[in-house]
Amino acid sequence: KVGSKDETTGLTGVSHWVEHMNFKGTTNIPREQMKGIIEKFGGSWNGYTWIDQTTYMETASTAGLDRMLFIESERMANCVYDPADCESERTVIISELQGGENDPDTLLEQDVIAAAYKVHPYRHPTIGWLSDLQTMTRDDLYQYYRRNYVPNNATVVVVGDVDTDDVLRRVEKQFGGIPAG
Description:
globular
């Protein structure tokens, strides 16, 4: 339940940047192992940020459910935010922003939305404004992550060949020890 609507001037794009950082490893899962855990179960993963949400998703066999829930609980509670990774992602996100600046549809959408929502947080593009992306710090990212990536601000959705009561027990096991926020 966190997206670009939750950002303030000076921190536009922070939700999207945090989404990127949450793929960079945790205290218990080194970054180079995260993708491999999912692939071990024939799965794939991705994420996206939008106005009202940030979504992380995995597709894997039912046998991988505990590992997928573990990855998400780790992502919620123990992301590392290595300063070098933060700087590397700054470059990636600014390149992504500049790529959009070469697309007339993106520019038109950005201008129309900014005009339509003059005082509402929806006026900020999800990727953020360049001036904010250039000045945001690792501490800005990490504080935003700690404030917003908490169980009472999240929804877990599991779809597939599973038993609801069993899934609820597994979710409680993985997320129950994380402070609600």
